[in-house]
């Protein structure tokens, strides 16, 4: 802990200025002694003052040497201190002018900001290579998370990091993947530049094929996926209303009546049975209902032996719902079916606590309009936390995502955003983000983000860690690698990381595979 300045001028309980005498940069942390405790503060600005006048500047331009030293001044925003109950407090009295300012101890930074050494490891605190930024795993199923960024800012890369961590912590995760971006999680990251950077973050290449299951409604476009089918046995009228966007009260009444008439006659009935029964009705309004049902059946998503949530949800498994090749309406139906099933099963405690990641969330829960999946996603946002069903809302257009859903996200990860409407939506939707964050978000570099919420008390600038798995949309049926990748063991480990040695293809031995995606491998081998 070194002294870097002295407080001067007018101070209050939230900010102070100090004359800089050491190495101080914007967004660095400093501490001061205060009667209520050691205060942590964030340097928000650094200015240079000089006695050089306009006339002096003209002389310097003409070649005349003028020796006048500049002086540095910094502005710091007070974060606060932890009281005896470990509650974050801000001081009730201002700091005294003349008090020394010191570089902040790493222990104080961790304590005040709520940064633990273990958990969902997202990266490192900016400018502090020894302080990991980790989220409490419980907070992700009990407090929803939003990941917001402009295109090209590293949004899907960060989601890949999150999925890796959820697998490590045995939290089941369902990923809605419209563009086939996450199938590459089965492969280790062999990018040479990133392998070198891994030393900084203390991670190693690793593929998660044993923990990945991939499903798709279009297995021709996505040949490495298992077919995605849902059971349509004994679907109730409310579920059909939601999936078919049926608003007409006459149509709804007819559908409800026909289903009630079918129940005594058939122990099990399907969408096709409902359609045929409605065709026999004498009311001409039946054709509107028939058209809606035929539209649902044309998606080819339904069969009597469809999947159940327990097929998708398994500990230490990430289930990728690869929607590439499916139309927008089909995608909405799939998201609605999966989300509704997960919510109902989790309420009954028939599946473990689960996280569902909704990529391109602005398509599935838009601010204006009404997607088929909007209603159930709003329900999960408002009630899912009570039952241990967490949701990650991922979008590059925060301004057009349902604000009721965004406001329910207790954890926020924000990467670079420049669109004014998106910035306003972010600032207005989340607590803990001040107006000063407006400029900071626009200046974030690729690979940098602001993390706040859950166990992290205040927004922290974070360098997102390197992915262990390959990033990109390229898909290969079965991974094989011709070379070994060697990385030096770090002296200090931020957390335990399961690392597998990548063996040459000719030395590869058959081993027991786990997970549904691995089951697909075994079928291919046969």
Query: What's the number of structural domains?
Result: 3
CATH architecture of the largest domain: 3-Layer(aba) Sandwich
Q: Which residue ranges are poorly predicted, with pLDDT under 50 across at least 5 consecutive positions?
A: 474-526
The CATH superfamily of the largest domain is P-loop containing nucleotide triphosphate hydrolases
Please provide the count of β strands.
21
- The rough form would be described as elongated
> How do the strands of the widest beta sheet line up side by side?
9-8-21-20-19-10-18-17-11-16-12-13
**Count of alpha and pi helical runs:** 17
The CATH class name of the largest domain reads Alpha Beta
Query: What share of the residues does DSSP label as strand, in percent?
Result: 15-25%
Q: What's the N-to-C terminus distance?
A: 63 Å
Helix content: 25-40%
CATH topology of the largest domain: Rossmann fold
Computed structural class: alpha/beta
Global Rg: 28 Å
Major β-sheet profile: 12 strands, mixed
């Amino acid at each position: 802990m070194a002294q870097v300045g002295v407080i001067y001028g007018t101070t209050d309980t939230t900010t102070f200025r100090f004359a800089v005498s050491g190495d101080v940069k914007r967004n660095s942390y400093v501490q001061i002694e205060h009667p209520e405790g050691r205060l942590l503060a964030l340097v928000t600005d650094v200015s240079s003052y000089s006695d050089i006048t306009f006339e002096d500047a003209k002389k310097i331009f003409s070649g005349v040497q003028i020796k006048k030293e500049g002086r540095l001044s910094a502005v710091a925003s007070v974060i606060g201190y932890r009281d005896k109950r470990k509650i974050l407090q801000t001081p009730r009295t201002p700091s005294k002018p003349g008090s020394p300012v010191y570089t902040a101890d790493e222990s104080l930074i961790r304590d005040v900001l709520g940064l633990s050494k273990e958990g969902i490891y997202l990266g490192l605190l900016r400018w502090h290579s020894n302080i990991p930024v980790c989220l409490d795993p419980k907070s992700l199923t009990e407090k929803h998370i939003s990941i917001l960024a402009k295109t090209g800012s590293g949004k899907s890369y960060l989601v890949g990091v999150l999925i890796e961590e959820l697998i490590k912590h045995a939290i089941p995760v369902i990923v809605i993947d419209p563009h086939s971006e996450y199938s590459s999680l089965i492969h280790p990251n062999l990018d040479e530049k990133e392998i070198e950077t891994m030393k900084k973050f203390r991670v190693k290449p690793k593929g998660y094929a044993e923990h990945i299951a991939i499903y798709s409604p279009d297995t021709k476009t996505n040949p490495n996926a298992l077919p995605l089918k849902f059971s349509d046995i004994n679907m109730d009228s409310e579920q059909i209303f939601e999936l078919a966007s049926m608003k007409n009260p006459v149509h709804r009444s007819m559908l409800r009546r026909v289903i009630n008439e079918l129940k005594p006659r058939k122990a099990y009935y399907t969408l096709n049975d409902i359609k045929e029964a409605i065709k026999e009705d004498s009311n001409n309004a039946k054709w509107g209902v028939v058209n809606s049902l035929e539209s649902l059946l044309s998606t080819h998503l339904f069969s009597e032996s469809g999947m159940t949530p327990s097929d998708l949800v398994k500990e230490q498994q990430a289930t990728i719902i690869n929607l590439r090749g499916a139309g927008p309406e089909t995608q909405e139906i799939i998201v609605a079916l999966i989300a509704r099933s997960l919510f109902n099963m989790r309420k009954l405690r028939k599946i473990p606590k689960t996280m569902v990641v909704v990529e391109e969330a602005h398509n599935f829960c838009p601010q204006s309009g009404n997607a088929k999946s909007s209603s159930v996603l709003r329900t999960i946002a408002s009630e899912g936390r009570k039952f241990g069903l967490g949701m990650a809302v991922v979008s590059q257009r925060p301004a057009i995502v349902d604000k009721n859903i965004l406001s329910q996200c207790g954890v926020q990860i924000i990467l670079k955003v420049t669109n004014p409407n998106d910035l306003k939506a972010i600032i207005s939707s989340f607590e803990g983000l001040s107006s000063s964050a407006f400029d900071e978000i626009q200046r974030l570099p690729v690979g940098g983000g602001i993390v706040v919420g859950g166990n992290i008390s205040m927004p922290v600038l974070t360098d997102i860690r390197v992915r262990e798995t390959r990033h990109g949309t390229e898909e290969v049926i079965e991974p094989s690698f011709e070379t070994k990748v060697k990385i030096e063991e770090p002296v200090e480990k931020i957390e335990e990381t399961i690392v597998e040695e990548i063996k040459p293809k000719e030395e590869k031995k058959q081993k027991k595979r786990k997970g549904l995606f691995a089951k697909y491998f075994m079928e291919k081998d046969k």
